[in-house]
Design goal:
MetI-like fold, 302 residues, mainly alpha
């Protein structure tokens, strides 16, 4: 049938319904991706702003304590003193060469305790969710480790694992990290949507499948909360392990600096490990905000 160009120009043929639907879906998907990108950027900016505010408050408190408490300047060093010691003094390079390797060792020990502690906490939380018998048998031991002061059981840990070994660092770090991380992950696993669990069971899914499909994804906010709590705990565990077992890193050096009245080195070491702990905490928080925002699980992205 011949076509009339004039009529076609005024009334173009209607596009197929399927093509229109596909174009609408593509436009909606593009808007969704753009919204997620904006949410991630806002979340990252908010987390970065919080980190800057925290760092500024820390410096002000530090300077206020040094200036207003009347402590001897020979003993108390402020942020300006430590900055000069590390960056502007004639021997600043030598001072950095002295402290930075110690900081690197403490970071390594912290990572060991953090990773082992988090892995053990997640595994135990999953096992407790699958079996109440395992929870009844193991949880009292976890509570016992939490109740007894670490300094009291450290000699036993060192006797079993060996003094100055990586195993002693891992065990001491795990003891410090384990309980708060386990409590957070268990809380997250227990808050799964009952309707979603019922759907899995109706379709014949096992308890393990429900755990994998519903409980674990829903527990991501609690897992990140456990990671945030575990960062300073892991640093504390590393310092304790270095003090009680290895004698290396910042933990071992602090004792030497204090005994030798090297107070500038002492404050410099404390400042470095504090700053690094804050940085690591905020890195985990930024990662949490980005991941949860991309998954649509963030409570607010404003």
């Amino acid at each position: 049938m011949p076509t009339n160009p004039t009529i076609d120009a005024l009334h173009p043929p209607a596009q197929p319904t399927t093509q229109i639907a596909l174009e609408a879906d593509a436009a909606a998907l593009a808007r969704l991706r753009a919204d997620r990108r904006r949410a991630v950027v806002r979340s990252f900016g908010r987390s970065l702003g919080n980190a800057v505010i925290t760092f500024a408050v820390l410096l002000l408190l530090w300077q206020g304590v040094v200036s207003l408490t009347g402590i001897s300047p020979y003993v108390a060093k402020g942020p300006i003193d430590v900055f000069a010691f590390l960056f502007t003094d004639e021997k600043a390079a030598a001072h950095r060469d002295q402290l930075f390797p110690l900081l690197g060792q403490t970071l390594l020990d912290s990572v060991i305790g953090f990773v082992v502690g988090m892995v053990v906490a997640v595994v135990l939380a999953v096992l407790f969710s699958l079996s109440k018998a395992i929870e009844a048998g193991v949880m009292p031991l976890v509570l016992l480790l939490r109740t007894i002061p670490l300094v009291s059981i450290a000699p036993v840990i060192i006797l079993i694992t060996g003094r100055g070994t990586t195993a002693s660092v891992a065990v001491i770090g795990t003891v410090v990290v384990l309980f708060p991380a386990l409590a957070n992950v268990l809380f997250g696993l227990s808050r799964a949507s009952q309707q979603s669990l019922d759907v899995v069971h109706v379709y014949g899914g096992s308890r393990f499948m429900a755990l994998r499909k519903v409980n674990l994804p829903g527990a991501l906010p609690s897992v990140f909360a456990a990671m945030r709590v575990s960062v300073p705990a892991a640093v504390t565990g590393a310092l304790l392990a270095e003090w009680l077992s290895t004698g290396t890193g910042i933990g071992g050096a602090i004792l030497k600096f204090n005994a030798q009245a090297q107070f500038t080195q002492l404050w410099g070491a404390i400042a470095l490990i504090t700053i690094i702990t804050l940085v690591l905490y905020n890195v985990v928080q930024i990662l949490e905000n980005v991941v949860l925002t991309r998954m649509g699980m963030a409570t607010s992205v404003a």
